[in-house]
Description:
Helix content is 16%, strand content 38%. The chain contains one helix and seven strands. It has one helix at 76-90; strands at residues 2-7, 26-27, 33-39, 43-45, 48-50, 54-60, 63-69. A hairpin with a 5-residue loop joins β2 and β3 (33-39).
Amino acid sequence: xxxxxxxxxxxxxxxxxxxxxxxxxxxxxxxxxxxxxxxxxxxxxxxxxxxxxxxxxxxxxxxxxxxxxxxxxxxxxxxxxxxxxxxxxxxx
Length: 92
């Protein structure tokens, strides 16, 4: 599991994220600006498989909040739930 928060910067000005063609990509209305969930591609680097985690992210206020889940229980719905919880806790 990973949770990252960065300044939003120019994220709202992007026409797209550049990973809309990845497996499972979908926009998430009612979470934040440019909210999404997607599964990262699996690739082999130096004989080790990497990627395959579910990521969800959104621009909320002046921040870009992103989460990632990997493992047998990681799926799109769990990533979205984690994103919602991370945003909720940041707003408290």
